[in-house]
Amino acid sequence: MANSGRGGDCRLLATEKEIEALAWEKLAPALGDDLRTIISEVHQGKAQLIAWGDNEFFTVLRGEVAANGKELVIVAAAGKNSLPHLETIHTQAKAQGFASVRLHTQRPEAMLRMGKRFGYQKAETILRAVL
Q1: What phi and psi values does residue 3 have, to the nearest 5 degrees?
Q2: What's the pTM?
Q3: In what order do the strands lie in the sheet with 69-79?
């Protein structure tokens, strides 16, 4: 798991396994039934689990190819202080040659408000019937 953190205090550092367990616990509600699939994708290297800050914000990211070029997909995100971390994600994505960032959310209104400064717009609607 990558850590984009800023270290710094005198407390004992958590092990990588403890941080990963905390990340999946925080991300589980956002991932729902896809949790096991996404964990598998991270372990296979198809997606990346990242702890941001002092393990206060977690994301699963993956790159895809879209019509307009490389697209960074925020598969899931959870934790505190999302806006500064989202800004870092955008800055790093641009520096790495991504043309766009896409995310899926179960709370589109909140994300549209938070993401307004980054230019997020509603792009698709997904409907699902559970059988």
Answers
A1: -130, 115
A2: 0.79
A3: 2-4, 48-52, 57-66, 69-79, 100-103
